[in-house]
Amino acid sequence: MSTDLFNEIRVLEDVNSLSKHEKLVQGVINAIDQKMISRGDMLPSVNQMIKEFNYARETIVKAYKDLITRGIIESKNRRGYFVSTDDTGQHLKVCLLLFAFDTFQETFYQSFRNHLGENVHLDIFFHHNNPQIFETIVKSIKGKYGMYVVAPIPQPESVELLEELPMNKFLMVDRFIKLKEPHSYIVQEFENSSYDAFAALADRIKEFDEFIFYFKPSSAEPDEVLKSFKTFVKDYKVKGVLKNKYEPGSIEPGKVYFTIHNLELWQMLKDTRSKGLILGKDLGILSHNDDNVKEIIFDGITTFSIDFAEMGNKAAEFVLTKTPVKHVMKTELFRRNSL
């Protein structure tokens, strides 16, 4: 197998338009296309390639890195380089690691996927805010992709894990955590934007007796939103109530309900209808993260949110151009019937 691969590379030695590293890359691609090597096969080590072609180590390493970026081969720690696909037509292999596949995450994904184009291979993973799952995934993807787009868990342990990834091929999305090395990010800001949304709705909130926020400690919910809620109810002298979760059937008139979770929102709306209450009059509901459904149901649910489709487009643009980016998405308030 190595002999066939070496021969394919030697065929290109007289092609003056190709650099040495490009000859190595094209030789591997040609060998795959001609079925000389296939997915799962181990490639010659860097030392073997040096011995065979007398190329500089940096040249061979650059070629292998180029093939990894394109998703054609992968590096396995202490084991070497392996063919990862028989599809040599793809130009880039991208890893996308998100919290979960909620509605707004799907909006981000669809926009991201569409903007990348057909020649990019995309693998998507979910960590569900579970540190063990997050660690396992990050360690398993290292060295296998040309670009890494990651929504991190905001905890100190995430820093060391993420810094094992190549920062020039890394994009942080959704949540921001500070890393030691400079890196690109396209993220949300939660504390000031949440407070501004509450403040803009203060007159409507004060028409009701209580402002109830369902917040689960040690969950995927941003702590900054909790902080802004506490500051708002104090500054505006609103009766604020914190609860861990919404209990089905507990909806009452005279209150404003705020939840980040769509499943809680759907249950609230179901209970509102079953009890014959009028949303926006008998009670108010505020939701986080906008989508098309919230614009339509019950004549509209009031939300504050970033544009997840725009975030997806911006993330894809970074992947395609590799232009460093440091961008905080703008949060907008969408005032509708529910509050």
UniProtKB/TrEMBL annotation:
One annotated GO molecular function: DNA-binding transcription factor activity
Entry keywords, A to Z: DNA-binding, Transcription, Transcription regulation
Domain HTH gntR-type: 18-86
Entry-linked PROSITE patterns: HTH_GNTR
CDD domains reported for this sequence: WHTH_GntR (cd07377)
Taxonomy, superkingdom: Bacteria
A Pfam family the protein falls into: GntR
Keyword Heme assigned: no
Matches recorded under InterPro entries: Peripla_BP_I, Tscrpt_reg_HTH_GntR, WH-like_DNA-bd_sf, WH_DNA-bd_sf
Record carries keyword Membrane: no
UniProt name for this protein: GntR family transcriptional regulator
Native source species: Mucilaginibacter limnophilus
